[in-house]
Amino acid sequence: MKKFTLVAALALGASLAFSAQAHNHGHHMAQQDAPDMSKAKVSDTISVSGCWIRAIPAPAPSGGYFVVHNKGDKEVKLQAAASSAYKMVMLHQTTQKDGMSKMSETHDIAIAAGGELEFKPGGYHAMLELGEKAPAVGDKVDLDLLFDNGEKASVQCEVKPANTRIN
Ligand SMILES: [Cu+2]
Question: How confident is the model at residue 17 (pLDDT cuts 50, 70, 90)?
Fold first, then answer.
């Protein structure tokens, strides 16, 4: 019985390590400190809606999806993201090349004046990494977004089952 448990644990560990490795292909793993958003002013013109994340077992990274609305009269660029539930949040873009899906780190994601941009599976997303513990389905996770005009916007993200699909 003990032996079976150990084998199962090893298999689980190996599959998590594999998915983490596959996931991180395409960007460097250097840890970075969460950006300091304390000085940023809460934006009057930028808002974030419909945020959700996948419930993925820790420590594997989890995607965060949302819509950024820019009611201002100037284009803004999303520069960074942070969450109290994760030590590191990266901005990623999934692209397709030769039938392969690949994610890479990205910055300065422009949201046009008066426009909106959807972050969704298969496109732009926030990559929530180094979570302390896996959030449970139905939990709320905070997410702060920092823009190049020095303003920030915050949202509460709903934790949905790992197999959630859109549309
Ligand atoms: Cu990603």
Answer: very low
How far, in Å, from the CA of 20 to the mean position of ligand 1? 10
Q: Is the pLDDT of residue 23 over 60?
A: no
60 alpha carbon to ligand 1 midpoint, in Å?
Answer: 11
Ligand 1 centroid to Cα of residue 94, in Å, is: 7
**What are the residue ranges spanned by the domains of the chain?**
39-160
CATH topology of domain 39-160: Immunoglobulin-like (2.60.40)
The token duo for 138 is 């139905």
Task: Give the distance (Å) from ligand 1 centre to CA of residue 113.
Answer: 26
Ligand 1 centroid to residue 93 C-alpha, Å? 7
Q: How confident is the model at residue 140 (pLDDT cuts 50, 70, 90)?
A: very high
74 CA to centre of ligand 1 in angstroms: 28
Helix (H) / strand (E) element for 7: namely helix 2-24
